């Protein structure tokens, strides 16, 4: 099954990359960009057919390795 | 003092560290490859700088889960002394042996320059050759050295005196908002921290690169001399 883990910096953690991109968008003339946050998408192809089990396994992976919970939050989406 | 330096794929400052350790002990430290699992007989384990595992995922994230880290955890639990410099500091935070995390430098630039560090406490194995408030020069070379932690952790670090070094101006003044003295934007200008038992120290700048007049100075030497004195047996 395909499962997608999205990792984002926590609210309140400074995201200098996002700031720089926001600044560049402003320079390019795109109006109304208030905030830009940069994250990671990690797509996994894993064995298993039980959506709940796959979801749980991906959450464990995120907690153990894919995200650093000191500075990052994650979401898991089973894509099927 | 029996010391070892852990070498991961992508570690590249292990020879600088070995020179610093040889200078104070008179012999070369043991080099421990990341697959090794035997740390018996050691007084000090050093995690040196570099780009372990290519900084994939996050700096230090892969190294924190490599086979040798299980042994390093148990070495720490037994009261062993650990020094992590630069990528070594990142690995220690990723492994949960020190609190907080290292973010991308606030100005997004890789910073290769000298900085000044103020010694925040002088009663630890790593800092006792200095006096509290002493300032010394240290080279820094990193892209992700912007220390951060949640407010509870910061309060605890301050309350329990677990900040070892802060980025400072040459006169010792610490102003976290000032890029000149706090180049990577670290919260509260934190450059190096200690574990609760003060036996684990992680820091971003490189004291090992100023240990000989031929390197341009000996500002970093007190750290290594202090370790030898503290860990003599």
TrEMBL record, chain A:
It is an enzyme of class 6 (ligase). Its EC number is 6.3.5.3. InterPro entries: PurS, PurS-like_sf. The keyword Transmembrane helix does not apply. Keywords: ATP-binding, Cytoplasm, Ligase, Nucleotide-binding, Purine biosynthesis. Pathway: Purine metabolism; IMP biosynthesis via de novo pathway; 5-amino-1-(5-phospho-D-ribosyl)imidazole from N(2)-formyl-N(1)-(5-phospho-D-ribosyl)glycinamide: step 1/2. It catalyses: N(2)-formyl-N(1)-(5-phospho-beta-D-ribosyl)glycinamide + L-glutamine + ATP + H2O = 2-formamido-N(1)-(5-O-phospho-beta-D-ribosyl)acetamidine + L-glutamate + ADP + phosphate + H(+). One of its GO terms (molecular function) is phosphoribosylformylglycinamidine synthase activity. Pfam families: PurS. Part of the FGAM synthase complex composed of 1 PurL, 1 PurQ and 2 PurS subunits. PANTHER family: PHOSPHORIBOSYLFORMYLGLYCINAMIDINE SYNTHASE SUBUNIT PURS (PTHR34696). Part of the phosphoribosylformylglycinamidine synthase complex involved in the purines biosynthetic pathway. Catalyzes the ATP-dependent conversion of formylglycinamide ribonucleotide (FGAR) and glutamine to yield formylglycinamidine ribonucleotide (FGAM) and glutamate. The FGAM synthase complex is composed of three subunits. PurQ produces an ammonia molecule by converting glutamine to glutamate. PurL transfers the ammonia molecule to FGAR to form FGAM in an ATP-dependent manner. Belongs to the PurS family. This is Phosphoribosylformylglycinamidine synthase subunit PurS.
TrEMBL record, chain B:
The keyword Cytoplasm applies. SUPFAM superfamilies: Class I glutamine amidotransferase-like. Pathway: Purine metabolism; IMP biosynthesis via de novo pathway; 5-amino-1-(5-phospho-D-ribosyl)imidazole from N(2)-formyl-N(1)-(5-phospho-D-ribosyl)glycinamide: step 1/2. The keyword Cytoplasm applies. The active site is at 86 (nucleophile), 206, 208. InterPro entries: Class_I_gatase-like, PRibForGlyAmidine_synth_PurQ. Its EC number is 6.3.5.3, 3.5.1.2. It catalyses: L-glutamine + H2O = L-glutamate + NH4(+); N(2)-formyl-N(1)-(5-phospho-beta-D-ribosyl)glycinamide + L-glutamine + ATP + H2O = 2-formamido-N(1)-(5-O-phospho-beta-D-ribosyl)acetamidine + L-glutamate + ADP + phosphate + H(+). It is found in: Cytoplasm. Keywords: ATP-binding, Cytoplasm, Glutamine amidotransferase, Hydrolase, Ligase, Nucleotide-binding, Purine biosynthesis. Part of the FGAM synthase complex composed of 1 PurL, 1 PurQ and 2 PurS subunits. Part of the phosphoribosylformylglycinamidine synthase complex involved in the purines biosynthetic pathway. Catalyzes the ATP-dependent conversion of formylglycinamide ribonucleotide (FGAR) and glutamine to yield formylglycinamidine ribonucleotide (FGAM) and glutamate. The FGAM synthase complex is composed of three subunits. PurQ produces an ammonia molecule by converting glutamine to glutamate. PurL transfers the ammonia molecule to FGAR to form FGAM in an ATP-dependent manner. This is Phosphoribosylformylglycinamidine synthase subunit PurQ. It comes from Acetobacter farinalis. The gene is purQ.
């Amino acid at each position: 099954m395909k499962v997608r883990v999205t990792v984002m910096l926590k609210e309140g953690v400074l995201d200098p990359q996002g700031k720089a991109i926001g600044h560049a968008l402003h320079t390019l003339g795109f109006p109304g960009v208030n905030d830009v946050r940069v994250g990671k998408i990690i797509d996994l192809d894993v064995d298993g057919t039980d959506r709940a089990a796959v979801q749980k396994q991906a959450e464990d992976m995120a907690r153990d390795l894919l995200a650093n919970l000191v500075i990052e939050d994650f979401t898991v989406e089973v894509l099927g | 003092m029996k010391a070892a330096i852990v070498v991961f794929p992508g570690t590249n400052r292990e020879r600088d560290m070995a020179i610093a350790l040889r200078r104070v002990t008179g012999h070369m430290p043991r080099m421990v490859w990341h697959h090794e699992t035997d740390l018996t007989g050691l007084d000090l384990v050093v995690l040196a700088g570099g780009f372990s595992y290519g900084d994939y995922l996050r700096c230090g994230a892969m190294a924190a889960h490599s086979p040798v880290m299980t042994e390093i955890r148990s070495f720490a639990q037994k009261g062993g002394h650990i020094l992590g410099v630069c990528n070594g500091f990142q690995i220690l935070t990723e492994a949960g042996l020190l609190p907080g995390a290292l973010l991308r430098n606030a100005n997004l630039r890789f910073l290769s320059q000298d900085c000044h560090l103020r010694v925040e406490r002088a009663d630890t194995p790593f800092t006792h050759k200095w006096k509290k408030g002493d300032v010394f020069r240290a080279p820094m070379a990193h892209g992700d050295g912007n220390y951060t932690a949640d407010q509870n952790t910061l309060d605890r670090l301050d309350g329990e005196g677990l900040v070892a070094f802060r980025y400072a101006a040459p006169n010792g003044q610490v102003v976290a908002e000032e890029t000149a003295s706090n180049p990577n934007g670290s919260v509260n200008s934190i450059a190096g921290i200690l574990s609760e038992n003060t036996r684990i120290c992680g820091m971003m700048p490189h004291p090992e690169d100023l240990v000989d007049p031929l390197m341009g100075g000996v500002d970093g030497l007190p750290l290594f001399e202090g370790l030898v004195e503290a860990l003599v047996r």
